[in-house]
Amino acid sequence: MAIRNVVLEGDEILRKHCREVSEVTDRIREIMEDMLETMRKEVGAGIAAPQVGIMRRMFVAEPEPGRVYYMINPVITEQEGSQTGDEGCLSVPGLIGTVERPQRIKIKALDLDGKEKEYEFEGWDATVMCHEYDHLDGILYIDKATNIREPESEE
Ligand code: NI
After folding, report:
1. Residue-wise over 127-149: b if at least 16 C-beta within 10 A, else e?
2. What's the CA-to-centroid distance between 88 and ligand 1, angstroms?
3. Which residue, of 11, 12, 19, 125, has the greatest Cβ tally within 10 A?
């Protein structure tokens, strides 16, 4: 595994639509493991492929330490309710903002073996998945957030 550079806001790469992964190959698995390692080093809860310069529809999420999801060609099939909470992004360092997200979602995606799985998430888990999913369509949380601020300024 290897640490990859995180693309920062302002770079057009983060504003593009990503293309589907046509086949889950060893190279895709390697990129996903690199993404996990990079995300953990930067202390994030998720990272999407365009954040490491790979324009493919895939992300890694770890909403809670040790609980890792690899999502390839994810599709959100259901969403309901709403919640608001604070989010940050490895591509927008030093800021947080308040975002409205669905309270509950269903999402299907291929795993690292290329098998389709369906998941149900709610609360923070749903927020993480929606945030990472947005990256695949060139959307950043700051497009949707209110009260964007430095976390230190809250005291
Ligand atoms: Ni992000």
Report:
1. bbbbbbbbbbebbbbbebbeeee
2. 7
3. 125
**CA 20 to centroid of chain Cα atoms:** 15
Residue 2 pLDDT > 60: yes
* Top-confidence residue, 154 or 78: 78
Helix residue ranges per DSSP H, the chain? 26-41, 124-135
In angstroms, the CA 36 to CA 38 distance is 5
Cα 58 to ligand 1 centroid, rounded to whole Å: 13
132 is a catalytic site residue: yes
- Which CATH number is associated with domain 12-149? 3.90.45.10
**Rounded Cα gap, residues 9 and 59, in angstroms:** 17
pTM of this prediction? Answer: 0.96
Delimit the domains of the chain by residue range. 12-149
104-147 tens-digit pLDDT: 999 999 999 999 999 999 999 999 999 999 999 999 999 999 99
